[in-house]
Amino acid sequence: MKIVFFGSSSYVIPILRFLVKNFDLKLVLTTEKSGGAVPTFCKQNKIEFLSVPNLSDSNLKSLILNLKSPIAVLADFGLIIPPEILNLFPKGIINLHPSLLPKYRGPTPVQNAILNGDKITGISIIKLDEEIDHGPILGQEKEQILDTDTAESLYKRLFAKGANLLPKILNKYLEESLKLIAQNHENATFTKSLKRETGFIDTSKIKDQKSKIKLERKIRAYFPWPGVWTRLRLGYGGQAKLKIIKFLPFGKLQVEGKKPVSYKDFLNGYPDAKSVILPIL
Q1: What's the mean per-residue pLDDT of the chain?
Q2: Which domains, and CATH codes, for the chain?
């Protein structure tokens, strides 16, 4: 069966592998530019792909229509699918979303799960409708959140789990033997996009154990992007300069332009920063 895929980032490669093996993958649409994980995979496997900054190109609708693909799959795409694209697929677009919907709709479900100290999350497979992560559920599987998880490690596991769940779900859906379950919209929660500034911290406000726990979660939730960072004046006298300091998982710090080091090695190299760094450890 012909199929189209919408997706970006290295996280979705397990899903692409499944589609290449089991379907006639006619086209991949991605927001990544040449050199990204998805375009590279497509080139290696001789799959037609388009790198698109948006879905407003009038030629795109004609291209998809001419493919005559009854269904599409979407994962970590990063753009909202407009109705004129959604309606091109008779059997719709199947979306893999890394949360247990209706919890954490939107672009940053994993980051929010870690920030909130959740112990369990999961992957949801839904049929897209015109609202964000709002459509009926085809299937879900739970996943434990480890104390060491970063957004990166958890996204990898969730999309890999989704790639394993997709064959069972997709085949039943195409055979029309799967019952779709409406989400409980009253229980929906929503997430927001992250910006570089989201990761900035004011170290003077990290004073008690509760704020230290929040910082530790934030470091893991915002890795690798946007990262947790602050500005510190490092050096002595006229040699002192304002530098960006990144807080990395597993007890690492990184001064801009330098390699990551342990807190201990950082303080050995910049003893003048002890008054700022030690209170938040």
Answers
A1: 95
A2: 2-187 (3.40.50.170), 196-280 (3.10.25)
